[in-house]
Amino acid sequence: MAGTKLIKLDLNEADELYGWEMHKNPIVISAMRESIKLGQYFPAVDIVKSEDGIYQILTRNVFNATKNYGGHNRSFSHYKEKTPLLCRLWEENTDDVEDIKFRPIKEIKLDGELNNYQLRNTLLHLPPYIAKEFCRKNKLFPEYYLY
Q1: Are 71 and 46 in contact (CB under 8 A)?
Q2: pLDDT for 97-110, tens place per residue?
Q3: Domain range for 48
Q4: What residue spans of the chain are helical by DSSP H?
Q5: What is the CATH number of the domain that holds 28?
């Protein structure tokens, strides 16, 4: 893909990553951390490097301008697991971010609402027997683990 390159950021060492979502759900983060511990890979987080050398999550989807980018769950989970985060670094920053307040990913608070779509998407990265046990333990989706 022209204008990009894959890199790995070490959020526990020198690399600092900024985003705009500061409240995430602890259950989604927990499921994602389980996947990371098992060596599962997630799609690269799309980022840009600002003029002052700070990495930030890209805000607008290059392929679909009506959708926002994301990656806050992936970024925070990799930070907590102390594992490098796979990122797609865009050479050109076309973001219009004047109205967005960026903060370090490390400052995310685990007090956000549960997003079933994000949780189900994360559970797909777990082996079925582990996903089932995770759901049972957290009393999620009983239709999944009762049978």
Answers
A1: yes
A2: 556 788 999 999 99
A3: 4-141
A4: 26-37, 72-81, 116-123, 128-137, 142-145
A5: 3.90.1530
